[in-house]
Design goal:
Layout lengths: L7 E6 L9 E8 L2 E7 L12 H4 L1 H5 L9 E3 L8 E3 L2 H19 L4 E5 L6 H5 L1 H8 L3 E3 L5 H11 L15 E5 L3 H4 L1 H14 L2 E5 L5 H4 L3 E3 L6 H14 L5 H7 E2 L1 H8 L4 H8 L3 H12 L4 E5 L9 H15 L8 E3 L11 H4 L10 E3 L3 H5 L3 H4 L7 E5 L3 H4 L3 H8 L5 E6 L11 E4 L8 E4 L5 E5 L12 H12 L10 H11 L5 H7 L1 E3 L4 H4 L12 E2 L33 E6 L13 H7 L3 E4 L1 H7 L6 E6 L2 E9 L7 E5 L33 E9 L4
Helix pairs in contact: 3-21, 6-15, 10-13, 10-14, 10-15, 13-14
Family: Belongs to the prokaryotic molybdopterin-containing oxidoreductase family.
InterPro entries: Asp_de-COase-like_dom_sf (IPR009010), MoPterin_dinucl-bd_dom (IPR006657), Mopterin_OxRdtase (IPR006656), Mopterin_OxRdtase_4Fe-4S_dom (IPR006963), Mopterin_OxRdtase_prok_CS (IPR006655), Prok_Mopterin_Oxidored (IPR050612), YoaE_C (IPR037920)
Pfam family, one: Molybdopterin
C-alpha cells in the first residue's frame, strides 16, 4: 500500500492490556496506512520507551490476515466455512437470533462478554450500555485484576499509591510478582534511572529467572504461591531487629500489636521451608529493605493469580507500613492508580439503566456457565446467546475443556467482533470485522501510571471494519434498546464523560495529548491518612467487606495454604507466565512475534528433567485432573526444582494436539470475590518422545 501524501506524526496511546498505557507517536503515511510507532518522549511516564511488540504495530494493523468483511458460518461450528454478507444482514441476523432467544428464555439468556482487548474506555466498556438497557446477564470481570485489587484495598482502603515516577527517586525498588520487561517496560525505565543516578538497588521477587530478574541486583526465586510467607518473615526481622518505625505504626496503622505477636512464629526458618529460599537470602533482603528509607514496592499482578492471591498482595503491601516508607519521596508502594481518575461512566456503560435484580456471571467461569453449572446459572435460564468483543475465551479462559464444550453447543448462538480469526472467532455464527486502535476514536487511563490520554483516529478503517461503538449502536437500534449513548459519536461520549468527571474536555485533551491526574504528594503517600474510615492502614484485614466468600481467610498476613498443593500424583507446580512478544492472545498472529517466541514450551529444571528421563527439545505430556497436552521441553535452571513455567497464551492451533495451556487451569473462583488462578496449578509430567533432529 502506498500513498503520495506527505507523512505526519500524530499522538495516540497504546490500547493494550498493560499497566503502562504508553503515550505514542504514530506515523501516518496515508488515509489508510500507518508507518513507525514510537513512545512519546515528552510524556513523563512513557519517556520515549515502548515495548518491541507495540513498536511493530504496523505489522499488526496491516497484517494480511486481518478480518475485513462480515461473515456468516455455513459449515459445522469451527469448520472454517464462511459466507461473506453485508453489515445490514449480519446485524439483522444477530438481532433476530437474540430476540428469538429472549422471547423463549428471558433477557438473561443473552450474555455480552468482553474484557481488555482494548483498554479504551468507550470501545471497551460500551458493551455494558447494551447489556444494562436490554437487561442481559451481567458480568463479574474477574479474569485479571480482582484478586490483586482486593488484596491491596483491604489494607490501604484506596486503589492508589506513590506516584510511579518516584521510582526514579528511590534507593531501593522491589519489583514483586511482575515481569516488567515483558509486561510493563516503563517500570524498568524509572527503576534503572534510579540505579544510574542514585546507585539504587533493584530486587525482583518472582518464581523464575525471567528478563526482569536478570536485570536485578537481587532475585528471590520463590515457589509459586508462597509470597505471603516471605512477606511475613521479612516483617518478623523488621520487628526483631528494630527496623520497624514504631512512631509511624502508632499513628497510621491498625492491628500492629496483633501483627507483631503473630509474626513471632513466622521466622525466616519457617518461611525458608515454605518458599524454598535460604534463610540467608531472607535476612539479606529484609535488612536491605529495612535499612533503606526510600524503598519502593512495585507490586504486580502475577503473584495474586493464586487461590491465596489476595492474601499474598495484602501481606506484601504491609511492608511499607511497617517501615514507614510511605513518609519518604521515592518510598512507599504502588500497584494501580485506578482511584485517582474518579470517572463518571454513566453514559459509557449505561449505569442509569442497571437492574440489580439481573444475575451476575463470573467471566472466569465461562466454561462452567456454558456447560450449565447451576452454581453459576442459579435459577435463571441457560446462556443461549453470546456477543463477544475484546476477548478470546477459547484460548484465554480457564478450564478450556468446558469452554470448548460450551461453545460447541448447537443451541448456542455466538456473534464475535474481532480483528483476527482467533480460536473464538472460529466458533462464531456471525463474525464481524473490528477496527484496531488507530482506526477509531477513544481515550485511555493509565492504571500503572497517572495520565488520561486521547487516542484519536489516525487512519480510516480498513476494509469494512467497524468500531465496537458502531457495532453496539447498530445492534441497539435493531434490538429496540434506547439510550442517548447509542445516538452519540465516540468523540461526543468522550467529551461528555471528561466534563462530568471533572477533567478537561475533549478538545483540550486533544490539544494537550494527555492530562496528568496525579494527586498531591500527601494524598499519594497517605500522609493525610489511608482510605478506610478510620484513616489507618489495616494489618488486620476485614475480608468480609471485600467479597461474599471470605470464610476461612486469615485475620493477619500469613501463608494461606489453600493453593493447589503438589502430591505424589502431581509433583510439580506450574506458572503460566506472560511471553515477551505476546500480550495474552494479542500479537499471536504477527509474524515477528511468532518467530521470536518460536513454539510453546515448558521450562523444567535440569534435575527434574533428569529424573523424568527427558531432555531439551523433547516432548512431554503435561497434565492434571483438568486434562493434558503435549508440549516441548526447555531445560531451564532459573526455577526451583518442582516448579515449571510455560510462557505465553499461545493459540491452540500451535500446540501438538490443538488445545492450549489453559486446559490445565482450574475455573475455581478464588476468595473472597472471585479471580482466575492462572499461576496456581499442580501438574504431572510424563516423557513422550526424544528431541527431533
Amino acid at each position: 500500500m502506498t500513498s503520495s501524501t506527505q507523512s505526519e506524526i500524530l499522538p495516540s496511546a497504546c490500547p493494550h492490556d498493560c499497566p503502562s498505557t504508553c503515550a505514542l507517536e504514530i506515523e501516518r503515511l496515508g488515509p489508510q496506512q500507518i508507518g513507525r510507532v514510537r513512545g512519546a518522549a515528552d510524556n513523563s511516564y512513557t519517556a520515549g520507551v515502548i515495548c518491541a511488540k507495540v513498536a511493530r504495530y504496523t505489522e499488526r494493523t496491516h497484517h494480511p490476515d486481518r478480518l475485513m468483511h462480515p461473515m456468516r458460518r455455513v459449515g459445522e461450528k469451527g469448520s472454517g466455512e464462511w459466507q461473506r454478507i453485508s453489515w445490514d444482514d449480519a446485524l439483522d441476523e444477530v438481532a433476530e437470533a437474540f430476540l428469538k432467544r429472549e422471547a423463549e428464555y428471558g433477557s438473561e439468556t443473552i450474555w455480552p462478554y468482553y474484557y481488555a482487548g482494548t483498554m479504551g474506555l468507550v470501545q471497551r466498556d460500551g458493551i455494558n450500555r447494551l447489556r444494562h438497557v436490554k437487561k442481559y446477564s451481567r458480568q463479574h470481570s474477574t479474569i485479571c485484576t480482582t484478586l490483586a485489587w482486593t488484596g491491596w484495598n483491604v489494607g490501604t482502603g484506596s486503589l492508589h499509591g506513590t506516584d510511579p515516577r518516584e521510582m526514579a527517586k528511590s534507593d531501593l525498588v522491589v519489583i514483586w510478582g511482575t515481569n516488567a520487561v515483558h509486561t510493563q517496560i516503563n517500570v524498568m525505565t524509572h527503576a534503572t534511572r534510579a540505579r544510574k543516578e542514585r546507585g539504587a538497588k533493584i530486587v525482583v521477587i518472582d518464581p523464575y529467572r525471567n528478563a526482569t530478574a536478570i536485570a536485578a541486583d537481587m532475585h528471590l526465586c520463590v515457589r509459586p504461591g508462597t509470597d505471603g510467607a516471605l512477606a511475613c518473615a521479612v516483617m518478623h526481622i523488621l520487628f526483631a531487629e528494630n527496623m520497624a518505625d514504631r512512631a509511624y505504626i502508632a499513628k497510621y496503622t491498625k492491628g500492629a500489636a496483633e501483627l507483631e505477636e503473630h509474626l513471632k512464629t513466622r521466622t525466616p526458618e519457617w518461611a525458608a521451608d515454605i518458599t524454598g529460599l535460604s534463610v540467608e537470602e531472607i535476612y539479606e533482603f529484609a535488612r536491605l529493605y529495612g535499612q533503606t528509607k526510600k524503598s519502593f514496592l512495585r507490586l504486580g499482578y502475577g503473584f495474586s493469580r493464586s487461590r491465596n492471591g489476595s492474601v499474598n498482595m495484602h501481606a506484601a503491601s504491609c511492608l511499607a507500613a511497617v517501615t514507614g516508607a510511605w513518609q519518604h519521596e521515592g518510598g512507599g508502594a504502588f500497584h494501580n492508580n485506578g482511584a485517582i481518575y474518579h470517572w463518571n461512566k454513566t453514559l459509557i456503560e449505561g449505569l442509569d439503566a442497571v437492574d440489580p435484580n439481573i444475575r451476575v456471571l463470573d467471566m472466569s467461569r465461562i466454561g462452567p456457565v456454558l456447560t450449565g453449572d447451576k452454581r453459576d446459572l442459579g435459577d435463571g435460564p441457560p446462556i443461549t446467546g453470546l456477543f463477544i468483543q475484546n476477548m478470546n475465551p477459547m484460548d484465554v479462559a480457564p478450564d478450556l475443556t468446558k469452554v470448548h464444550a460450551g461453545f460447541a453447543r448447537d443451541d448456542l448462538f455466538v456473534c464475535v467482533h474481532e480483528q483476527f480469526m482467533t480460536e473464538t472467532a472460529k466458533m462464531a455464527d456471525i463474525l464481524l470485522p473490528a477496527t484496531t486502535f488507530v482506526e477509531h476514536d477513544d481515550f485511555y487511563q493509565g492504571g500503572g501510571q497517572n495520565h488520561i490520554m486521547m487516542g484519536g483516529k489516525i487512519i480510516e478503517p480498513l476494509g469494512e471494519c467497524r468500531s465496537n461503538h458502531e457495532v453496539i449502536c447498530g445492534l441497539a437500534k435493531r434490538l429496540g434498546a434506547n439510550h442517548r449513548g447509542f445516538e452519540m459519536t465516540e468523540m461526543e461520549i468522550i467529551d461528555d464523560t471528561l466534563k462530568i468527571s471533572g477533567w478537561p474536555d475533549a478538545a483540550s485533551l486533544t490539544a494537550s495529548k494527555w492530562h496528568d491526574c496525579q494527586i498531591p504528594y500527601e494524598e499519594a503517600h497517605y500522609l493525610n491518612g489511608f482510605g478506610h474510615a478510620d484513616k489507618k492502614f489495616h494489618f488486620t484485614p476485614d475480608w468480609s467487606r471485600m467479597g461474599p466468600n471470605f470464610d476461612g481467610m486469615p485475620s493477619l498476613p500469613d501463608h494461606w495454604e489453600v493453593i493447589d498443593q503438589t502430591d505424589a500424583e502431581h509433583p510439580f507446580r506450574m506458572v503460566t507466565a506472560p511471553a515477551r512478544n505476546f500480550l495474552n492472545s494479542s500479537f499471536t498472529a504477527t509474524p515477528t512475534s511468532l518467530k521470536k517466541e518460536k513454539r510453546p514450551t515448558v521450562k523444567i529444571h535440569g534435575s527434574d528433567a533428569a529424573r523424568l528421563g527427558t531432555e531439551d527439545g523433547a516432548i512431554v505430556r503435561l497434565g492434571n485432573r483438568q486434562g493434558s497436552l503435549l508440549i516441548h521441553v526447555e531445560i531451564f535452571d532459573g526455577v526451583q526444582p518442582g516448579t515449571v513455567i510455560s510462557e505465553g497464551v499461545w493459540p491452540g492451533k500451535h500446540f501438538i494436539e490443538k488445545v492450549g495451556i489453559n486446559i490445565l487451569i482450574s475455573a475455581e473462583a478464588a476468595k473472597p470475590n472471585g479471580g482466575a488462578v492462572f499461576h496456581d496449578t499442580a501438574v504431572w509430567i510424563r516423557p513422550e518422545s526424544a528431541p527431533s533432529e
